[in-house]
Design goal:
By secondary structure, the protein is α/β, with parallel strands linked by helices. The protein contains 30 helices and 33 strands. The chain folds into three domains: 276 residues, Aconitase, domain 3; 212 residues, Aconitase, domain 3, CATH 3.30.499; 182 residues, Aconitase, domain 4. β32 and β33 form a beta hairpin.
């Protein structure tokens, strides 16, 4: 190890051990930088090689102009990569395919190997098939193994075939919670060098690690693969938003209420592509669990990261979660030596400033389809009554006594449906009252009840966002205890589930004696995984599902997750609300959103009406149980042999060898097509001529709209493919579980049941107009794309604002590319999806400020020519290109933002770029 051009290499003594460190104070200007940029600066100092990272890059970061528009490119080399199985399986498929491509081009296939630690946690595959019984967990795990045996065998092969690749088996926990509780180092010690832990992940909520001071964010799977193979991540030095926290949270509010407030504020402010960093005296008032909750929801703000510097609270958490004393001592000494220790009295320089008094936070929900649409709990009933009228077709029933209630104008923004191209289906004359459609239902066991709009069909304590937080989890269990003691239980139409982010949660529930109360009201353990938050809700009871669909009922879901996008949670549920775990239970007891939950009785108990205030636990009681029920030994025991797995995992038969033996009959894992016919040198970039529009979309189209993760609907191209290959409907599993099979995923691209393609009128789902056929009839998007491909016709997608928001899933870009889409023209992009498109060789173009498809008169029926793209062949990046569409001509911006991204695009994608470089070496 040698000093770089700044002479920054020195020694750090901690206890009896000496570490090499790259001193930040060797670079003039470093002291004024925010914490996050100091971490980036150390990364550049340590990786300076005179080529990818130069002294000029280091000076550019040290002399950062906080107010400037990002323009300076740097190369960031993350210390490690973390994955979950939905996004991780295609990563391993790609790596296995790359090995064969290297062999075919005359290279050594074993060179395709992670160069830095790569860890995968299997957490996305368990589905809530069974609930409400003590056997639910074991039965769900059994089904999970039966359905996913091929995938798990493949991952076990990967664990043996690749160095530096480890797999945390199913049933352990959710990736981000396992990360902060066990995998995160905070400060690395590798080969005698100490440096900040940095980590990118194949899940957008990788940012949960920001809560413990680890800089990282979600990237597409292909970008993560490149990082594993030693390829630095090209990025512009970002703007950093300083978010000052003051005061303390009031009694009765939770971390969920806080994070929904922050989400609303930051979405309104605009932080896409920016870092957010928290500072101020209020940070000390936040337990680490609350910081992790905030970090987790960074993608919901739109920011790249949402980070908290290291302080005593960080060390306390590391100690609690079983990190050894030597590691904790290193974290403290390194952070203080390098100026990375939080000093509340010092205000770093930021690009923009926001402030929140924690004392102003109120109990809240968010919904019905976006995390940023916060609703004060006091206004939840009125806003539901307003918003539901965008989801019902039935004629309005008589307004009840609430018909004269006023609707808040500002607390919850009116639902914005032009994002997916829809319009309100029915609004009554005065905009108040509520629709009724009462439907009698009788279950198999003889239970009878009536369903109506607004009834809660799903109540799920799910997602690492909140289940990692013992305060809200203990609060939920105490509320359950108080409810049981008053004689309450869930309503019979509510599908309830408890899916903690780690086994530690059930350990402290057991120690506190709270598990029986959760079981009593139907919140039995169903699995350790993401479940409902990613759409693995499982089916509703058949009688309920039939009643909902036959009568077009707008039933609701209440979940403690981070995402509530349309079509994500359940195909039967139209309106989805994010809430704290205690509120999830409260709404399961009430059974409806059409309730003033703060003032109306939630249910009738053994001694009369029961109000929420009667069962809401006192903060002091919650804190006391958290302190007495959670111990270091729980974490030590849970993670003692975390990669070993149970007998089911260890008993899987796996192939051996450096190259994977593909099974042509597999419907889960197939050799990827990205390197088919690839030459040693790339073809020149070409302009696009004669393109047709595959889809014309509105604002806020998410990666869930583009590539759904949930159930595969019978009658769709993906379902037909599976049935043609002998898969029974009951074994379809989910799109997410089949991401290792490109044939399924291409057919599932743009297949979300709530997608609204504006080429069609009043049609939801994966459909378009097929201009290869006379009259341009309605067709499945996949079928139309195949017809265009047969004619050699390139495709484009038109979109509005925030295109590709939500999950980091690379299949939203992979599927787009494999359908034959050459370019997307949108008003704006979310960061990860734009990057993913480039990584797959799809050109992201952006309408000029003030322009849109509508303002330019584009209907999507035009034929498009895009010229000027060939400017990329000259080594630079054209700032704009010309688009011609049936006589209209206009300019659009090229959203290839860095030279590194331009290299990826010229090579047809990031993996092709990496592969060619490896061959050259």
């Amino acid at each position: 190890m040698s000093a770089n051009s700044f002479g920054s290499l020195s020694k750090l003594q901690v206890g009896g051990k000496s570490y090499d460190i790259y001193r930040l104070d060797a670079v003039e200007g470093s002291a004024r930088l925010p914490y996050s940029l100091k971490v980036l600066l150390e990364n550049l100092l340590r990786t300076e090689d005179g080529a990818n990272v130069t002294a000029e890059h280091i000076r550019a970061l040290a002399q950062w102009d906080a107010k400037a528009r990002p323009s300076k490119e740097i190369q960031f080399t993350p210390a490690r990569v973390i994955m979950q199985d939905f996004t991780g399986v295609p990563c391993v498929v790609d790596l296995a395919t790359m090995r064969e491509a290297v062999r075919d081009l005359g290279g050594d296939p074993t060179k395709i190997n992670p160069l830095a630690p790569a860890e995968m946690v299997i957490d996305h595959s368990v589905i809530v098939e069974y609930f409400g019984s003590p056997q639910a967990f074991e039965r769900n795990v059994q089904v999970e193994y039966e359905r996913n045996k091929e995938r798990y065998q493949f991952l076990r092969w990967g664990q043996t075939a690749f160095d530096e690749f480890k797999v945390v088996p199913p049933g352990t926990g959710i990736v981000h919670q396992v990360n902060i509780e066990h995998l995160a180092r905070v400060v690395f010690d590798r080969n005698g060098v100490a440096y900040p832990d940095t980590c990118v992940g194949t899940d957008s909520h990788t940012t949960m690690e920001n809560g413990i001071g680890v800089l990282g964010w979600g990237v597409g799977g292909i970008e993560a693969e490149a990082a594993m193979l030693g390829q630095p991540i090209s990025m512009l030095i970002p703007r950093v938003v300083g978010f000052k926290l003051t005061g303390e949270l009031p009694a009765g509010t939770t971390a969920t209420d806080l994070v929904l407030t922050i989400t609303e504020m930051l979405r309104e402010h605009g932080v896409v592509g920016k870092f957010v960093e928290f500072y101020g005296e209020g940070v000390h008032a936040l337990p680490l669990a609350n910081r992790a909750t905030i970090g987790n929801m960074s993608p919901e703000f739109g920011s790249t990261c949402a980070i908290f510097p290291i302080d005593d609270e960080t060390l306390k958490y590391l100690r609690l979660t079983g990190r050894d004393d030597e590691q904790i001592a290193l974290v403290e000494a390194y952070a203080k030596e390098q100026g990375l220790w939080l000093d509340p009295s010092v205000e770093p320089e930021f690009s923009e400033y926001l402030e929140l008094d924690l004392g102003t936070v109120v109990p809240s929900l968010a919904g019905p389809k976006r995390p940023q649409d916060r609703i004060s709990l006091s206004a939840a009933k009125q806003t539901w009554r307003r918003d539901v009228q965008n989801y019902v077709k039935s004629v309005m029933g008589p307004a009840d006594e609430a018909s004269n209630e006023s609707f808040p104008a500002s607390d919850s923004p009116a639902i914005d449906h032009d994002g997916a191209g829809d319009k309100p289906r029915h609004v009554d004359a005065n905009g108040s009252g509520r629709p009724h459609n009462v439907v009698p239902v009788t279950l198999d066991d003889g239970t009878s009840f009536e369903l109506d709009h607004g009834h809660v069909a799903v109540a799920a304590i799910t997602s690492c966002t909140n289940t990692s937080n013992p305060y809200v989890m203990i609060g939920a269990a105490l509320l359950a205890k108080n409810a049981v003691e008053r004689g309450l239980t869930r309503k019979p139409w509510v599908k309830t589930s408890l899916a903690p982010g780690s086994q530690v949660v059930t350990d402290y529930y057991e120690r506190a004696g709270l598990t029986p109360y959760l079981d009593k009201i139907g919140f039995n353990l169903v699995g350790y995984g993401c479940t409902t938050c990613i759409g693995n809700t499982g089916p509703l009871q058949p009688e309920i599902s039939k009643a909902v669909n036959d009568n077009d009922l707008a039933v609701t879901a209440v979940l403690s997750g981070n995402r509530n996008f349309e079509g994500r949670i359940s195909p039967d549920v139209k309106m989805n609300y994010l809430a704290s775990p205690p509120l999830v239970i409260a709404y399961a007891l009430a059974g409806t959103m059409d309730i003033d939950i703060l003032n109306d009785p939630i249910a009738e108990g053994t001694d009369g009406p029961v109000y929420l205030r009667d069962i809401w636990p006192a903060p002091e009681e919650v804190s006391a149980i958290v302190e007495s029920s959670i111990g270091q030994e729980m974490f030590a025991q849970s993670y003692a042999d975390v990669f070993k797995g149970d007998d089911r995992w260890r008993g899987l038969d796996i192939p051996t060898g450096d190259l994977f033996e593909w099974d042509d009959a597999s419907t889960y894992v197939r050799k990827a097509p990205y390197f088919d016919g690839m030459g040693a040198e790339p073809e020149p970039v070409a302009d696009i001529h004669g393109a047709r529009v595959l889809a014309k979309l509105g604002d806020s189209v998410t990666t869930d709209h583009i590539s759904p993760a949930g159930s595969i609907k019978v009658g769709t191209p993906a379902a037909q493919y599976l049935q043609d290959n002998g898969v029974a409907v009951k074994d379809f599993n989910s799109y997410g579980s089949r991401r290792g099979n490109h044939e399924v995923m291409i057919r599932g691209t743009f297949a979300n049941i709530r997608l609204r393609n504006q080429l069609l009128d009043d049609v939801e789902g994966g459909y378009t107009r097929d201009f290869t056929q006379d009259g341009a009839p309605q067709a499945f998007i996949y079928d139309a794309a195949q017809n265009y491909a047969a004619q050699g016709t390139p495709l484009v997608v038109l979109a509005g604002k925030e295109y590709g928001s939500g999950s980091s899933r690379d299949w939203a870009a992979k599927g787009t590319a494999l359908l034959g889409v050459r370019a997307v023209i949108a008003q704006s992009y979310e960061r990860i999806h734009r990057s993913n498109l480039i990584g797959l060789g799809v050109l992201p173009l952006q309408f000029k400020e003030g322009d849109s498809a509508e303002s330019l008169g584009l209907t999507g029926t035009e034929t498009f020519d895009i010229t000027g793209v060939t400017g990329l062949n000259e080594g630079g990046i054209p700032s704009e290109v010309t688009v011609k569409a049936d006589g209209r001509e206009f300019k659009v911006d090229v959203r290839i933002d860095t030279p590194g991204e331009a290299d990826y695009y010229r090579n047809g994608g990031i993996l092709q770029y990496v592969l060619r470089n490896l061959i050259r070496k």
